[in-house]
Amino acid sequence: MAKQAERLRQPRPRTGASSRTKGRRSEDFDFRDLFENANDIVILNDRGGCIVMANRAAREFGGYSAEEVKRGVDLKEVLAPEEYEAAMILTQRALDGLPIPEVYERHAVLRDGRRRIVELRSNVLRNRSGEPLLQTIGRDVTESRHAAAFQASLAEVLRALLTAQGLDAASKVICDEALRVLEVDGVYLFLPSADEVVGAASAGAGAERFKGLRRSLNDSFVGKIFRRSDPLVANDFPSIYPGLELARGIDIRSLLAVPLRSSGATLGLLAFIHCHDPQYFVGEVCDRALIFAAQTAVAIESALARDREEEEGQVSAALLHVARAIRESLKEAEVVSQIAGSARSVLGCDWTFVSLWEDERKLFRVVATEGFTPEASEEMQLVEFHLKDFPETQELRADQPVEYPEPPAHAAMLFERWGGSSMLTQPISRGGAMIGTLAAGYRKRRGAFPARERRIIEGIAAQAAVALDNARLVEDLRRANDMKSEFLGTMSHELRTPLAAIIGYADLMREGVMGPLQPQQDQVLDRMLINGRSLLDLINTTLDVNRLESGRVAVEVSSFALNDLFTELRMELTARPSKEVVPVIWPVLQRPIVVRTDRGKLKVILRNLLENALKFTAEGSVSVSVSPGSSEQRVQLAVSDTGIGIPPQEQKVIFEMFRQVEGARDRSRSGVGLGLYLVRRYAQLLGGEVAVESSPGLGSKFKLDIPISLGE
To answer: For the residues 152-176, what does the mean pLDDT come to?
Structure first.
């Protein structure tokens, strides 16, 4: 080949034609044997840009015949206009012996107008007359360059999608990038919503028209494509779908619609159109569009997951806010007011109202409003929604929400009167029973409520059901407690009056006012007085507990010496007839200890502890002691005994109401388990604490730790 190349450089006889004319004939050069059958594109051009030779690969690539090349073809005809000037500069430099790039690229224009990218290498040859010519050898790299550009574009799209905040932003990126990467005239992304297909984003021709477009999933052109499992390619679109309403006003020549599927589910529909080429979606272009659609499906799935995660966070935060707002309310009126206010706050709507269901009258009654004028609120709470007047109440009673994207005809007057354009009503039910409804709405916004708002109002309604149920239960308990307190107070007073008379007459008889007594009568009177006073103590304790439970106990603070209190208790215990024989050991204080607290309640605490100790101590002793408290400002009073003791498991419950030590119940000892409960409650009122140390068979020690001066 080197010899052939050398031979080509030797001058040959000329045929008389000018070497600079377009009519130069390729027969002047003996290149046919060497280059004609080469696989690469090979051309020769002179300084003026005239192609003087092109091999078969070059002719087939450009779409020219051998005769056309012989007649003369100029570089202007085979290069893109923006490339011609650069090509001529490179030719001049090469023929002048100046350096040129080893490899470079040009955009070639084929005979049919298509453009291709060619990679070229050039060097200088001389014809037989010694005139320099530029030899250029090239190959078509269009596919590889387009593939590389497409991959780079996909990478850019992926980066944009990863940084997109939510599905709306990702949808816009998808359409904008598809328009750029695939060089189409229009891109439209549709996403499902209930039984519709909604235009989520669009770019290019008809973008404003398709954004937000809604079509039925079942019987529309878009819906039918959405339900397909394979793409729809519609080249020569007007002849396949003549007069399609969806395409009105847009000159669609070819269309490609790809259902976006993942894990067997259709996430959306991506459609591309071209307005000039009726056969645009074929071959490589179609393949790239399908690859882009597959990437879109992944992006949408990721965006949906991010949106779901963000929505879960928003819903949880909103419901937590509502829970915090209503958890402290225990009255029904407060609960419904908190529900209405919290719902409006977290939903961001214009107004809310809560209605309660009255089963006996079969109607809803508005009980709380938020966001209305005082006049409208007052008027709404006078309105009753009967089943016969509003058929939607049947759906609410069936635990189904009712949504009004726009004012309904039968309630248009009410919507206009109270300022509503859209409303979502959520049932409030508990255990299958209707409690009421929660309604939220807007004054100007119309259309369906988004899934986030529906989930939030559903969660609020669930919390409202629990709160209302609890409020009603608390109110029932309050009423029952009030009735119990009233009953106990009445009965205790009714019992105490005759019992006091019985004890009084027994005292008179025992003192001999009514005559001398026989020894047997004296013993009977002792037993009568013991049991009578025990019963009176029980009645008084019951009254005290009743006052505590109803919150009618006041703390009356005064200053007194502990010695005086001990003396008073000692005299009362000594004066009372008793069958106990164990002694009570009282403390001997070296100096007076003065405390400032409620004397009466402290006396009740100590008396109950002493009587409890005496009750369960058959032998030994009961002692009272005084010692420093848990701090310098506190004092500890203790009552110890040598009685039966308290098992460890019982020590945790003995201060509860109506609780007694197991094993002690079988003994013939009076009491219903209120004494220690009263001790604990009174100790708390005095700012103190009561505790017990005990072992079965070894006795017990009850310790009372209180402030020396209450309030300090």
So the answer is: 76
Report the alpha-carbon distance of residue 192 to residue 173 in Å, rounded. Answer: 19
* Alpha-carbon distance values, 565 to 146, 231, 592, 605, 704 (Å): 104, 98, 12, 12, 15
Q: Give Cα separations from 313 to 123, 124, 310, 652 (angstroms).
A: 67, 71, 5, 42
pLDDT of residue 12: 39
DSSP output for 581-607: ---EEPP--SS--EEEE-HHHHHHHHH
Contact status, residue 124 vs residue 94, Cβ threshold 8 Å: yes
Strand-strand pairing, 351-358 and 363-370? antiparallel
Residue 17 Cα distances to 21, 70, 304, angstroms:
8, 13, 73
- What local confidence, expressed as pLDDT, does residue 13 receive? 39
In 114-135, which positions are buried (b, 16+ CB within 10 angstroms) versus exposed (e)? eebbbbbebeeeebbeebebbb
Paired residues of 690 in beta bridges: 704
pLDDT value at position 155? 75
CA–CA distance, 609 with 70 (Å, rounded to integer): 130
Residue-level pLDDT at 23: 41
What's the number of CA atoms in the CB half-sphere (13 Å) around residue 684? 8
Place of tokens 């719902």: 343
The H-or-E segment that residue 161 falls in is helix 142-163
Per-residue pLDDT band for 161 (boundaries 50, 70, 90) equals low
pLDDT of residue 19: 39
CA atoms within 13 A of residue 11's CA, in its CB half-sphere: 8
CB 540 within 8 A of CB 591: no
- pLDDT at position 194, please? 76
Between CA 47 and CA 18 the distance in angstroms is: 13
Q: Which residues lie below 8 Å from residue 40, measured CB to CB, with a gap of 6+? A: 57, 137, 138, 139
Instruction: Name every residue whose Cβ is closer than 8 Å to that of residue 303 and which is 6 or more positions away in sequence.
Output: 161, 164, 166, 167, 170, 171
| Angle formed at CA 270 by CA 267 and CA 272, multiple of 5 degrees | 175
pTM given for the model: 0.45
Whether 562 and 600 have beta carbons less than 8 Å apart is answered as: no
Q: How many CA within 13 A on the CB side of residue 159?
A: 6
Q: Which domains does the chain have, with CATH numbers?
A: 2-140 (3.30.450.20), 146-309 (3.30.450.40), 327-552 (3.30.450.40), 554-707 (3.30.565.10)
End-to-end CA distance of the chain: 116
**Tokens encoding 587:** 């403390």
At 472-518, the pLDDT tens digits run: 777 777 776 667 667 666 766 677 778 778 878 777 887 777 778 78
Radius of gyration of the chain (CA): 51
Give the separation between CA 238 and CA 244, rounded to whole angstroms: 8
Q: Find out whether 669 and 643 touch, Cβ atoms under 8 Å.
A: no
> With contact defined as beta carbons under 8 Å apart, do 231 and 256 qualify?
yes
Most confident of the ranges 299-308, 506-515, 684-693: 684-693
Distances (CA, A) of 152 to 146, 159, 181: 10, 11, 10
Instruction: Say which residues have a Cβ less than 8 Å from residue 635's Cβ, sequence separation at least 6.
Output: 562, 593, 595, 626, 627, 628, 629, 705, 706, 708
What's the token pair of residue 85?
């000037």
